[in-house]
Amino acid sequence: MSDAVNERPPLLAVTDLNKHFPIREGLLIERKVGEVRAVDGVSFTIGYGETLGLVGESGSGKSTTGYCILQLLKPTSGSVRFEGTELTTLGREELRRMRREMQIVFQDPYSSLDPRMTVGDIVGEPLIVHGIGTRRDRSVRIRELLDVVGFNPSFTNRYPHEFSGGQRQRIGIARALALSPKLIVCDEPVSALDVSIQAQILNLLKDLQRDFGLTYLFIAHDLAVVRAMSDRIAVMNKGELVEVGPAEEVYKSPKHDYTKALLSAVPIPDPRAMKERKAARRKLRHALAEGV
Amino acid sequence: MALLDVENLSTHFFTREGVVHAVDGVSFSVERGKTLGIVGESGCGKSVTALSIMGLIPVPPAKIVSGRVLFEGTDLVRLRERQLEDLRGREIAMIFQDPMTSLNPTLTIGTQITETIRRHYDVSQKQANKKAIELLEEVRIPRASERLDDYPHRFSGGMRQRVMIAIALSCEPKLLIADEPTTALDVTVQASVLDLLDDLRHEHEMAMIIITHDMGVVAEASDDILVMYAGQIVEQASTLDLFDNPEHPYTEALLGALPQIEGVGIREGRLTAIPGRPPDLIDPPAACRFGPRCPYAGGDSCTETMPELRELRPNHWVRSAHPTSERAGARRPERTPA
User: Fold this and answer.
1) CA dist., res. A122 & res. A145, Å (int)
2) Which residues on B lie below 8 Å from A231 (Cβ)?
3) Minimum CA–CA partner of B266 in chain A
4) What is the interface pTM, i.e. ipTM, of the complex?
5) Which of A47, B45, B49, B73 has its CA 20 to 30 A from that of B211?
6) Whole-model pTM?
7) Which residue of chain A is at minimal alpha-carbon distance from B155?
């Protein structure tokens, strides 16, 4: 799992990351009877300005990996280094400062925005939390951020429920950009959106990356979406990283059987090609003899 | 005569905000043993179309305001609820998107399958149980006979959808309506459920309507495709013809907006986003509903009159003043920012 050696150290280095959740039983006296290895010995790096796509099916541990990197969940063990700083051992206050550098965009633009806050308050909240600028500075910055993500800045006093899913996701992205972070973890940012809106948001994320030199960890279950966004791709299955490599290579000549099964299962909008694919995936499924 | 003939179906929702034209003048037919795909984005009316056929729309606020749904010549819209109940499950069955909520969590799988069988056939519980086991085996649930007494929570999402399919098949329906049957499932599970549906419809010579937002799913599962937009059919063709020669600017744009899994320059390139979003279906404009987002809409007829659904060539229908083949020499629009 070694990546090409760059002269500059990577922005993010994750080494042997583990997150195990205990399974407890018993009503009065709980005892641990086992554990779920949600993330199991995961290592990868992300370079400056790069997008690493993290794909896998539900329960593969891809989102948990994202949360562990941002320290939103405390990893059981392992190391997460951001620009050389070890995050897992940082104290509360140090971590808070580091969070300016790392932000997250969530999947569901319906539940990830506080319905009682106005658009302006949502986007400006990170600035207040980190004590940045005066009230007037912030108001200028909020309009600028909304403009950047293609959201009409004159709607700052409206509430999230007044907007469609695509527009809400733009608000979520503006909030993530507020502190000019270096890394954004995008956790299924378009999976709740329709295809035509999805394309708008993916294009926006591409533009922002180009304009601001952002680095993305792009988590998604949709293999075509991940392909569109990523330089390199990491495939997770049952908590483990089964394959990492340049996007084109992973898709063209997948090495791991799970990656092969995953890729062969994707229905593609080409009825002629689907015939072959259907035959191929049946074969693979039998080979893997993997019950549903 | 086709198995199902939907003629000029309109279903509206009468809400406080106004009348929502959810389905507006939809006509199509399904031949015996064939699969029709209905594809479109959220709110295009594809599910309401299915529910209207089944007589399952919530009345009020919804109401079928016009049209006929002829199933083997009988107009389902005019049937009484009681008569519809005899038909549902037995002649036309339906499976839904969410296998987590469409089974009753308080009843065993066995009970839920046999109640459908016993509703429609005069058989003993024992005979019904035997049939249930056969059905579970047919949808490839391992150790079927041991699983009749299990409750739904013991089954994974993919397995629950298989149970739903078993229930749907229990009375050998002539038509199966599958509303986003694999949307809630992981991609590998989706593939196996689609393969299962494909096998079953051949074995049972069953017609199917598969409703989905996923162009990939319709591409592999259907013989013919309807593309819906804002409550209307905008394009209708055989699957091959639709993908080889999409005519409606919306279909074209939808295909362009899909990220590709194979090819060059994918990472660097941009997707062809469709600007704007679908119109409000309360009081929709009398003009072309895709007009405001259409790159070809000009000052001509598009903005004033509603284009008719017309047969551009045999078995290829389109509702647009500017279908691809009539834009001679016209190039696809430049890849523009959203």
Assistant:
1) 12
2) 267
3) A228
4) 0.81
5) B73
6) 0.86
7) A292
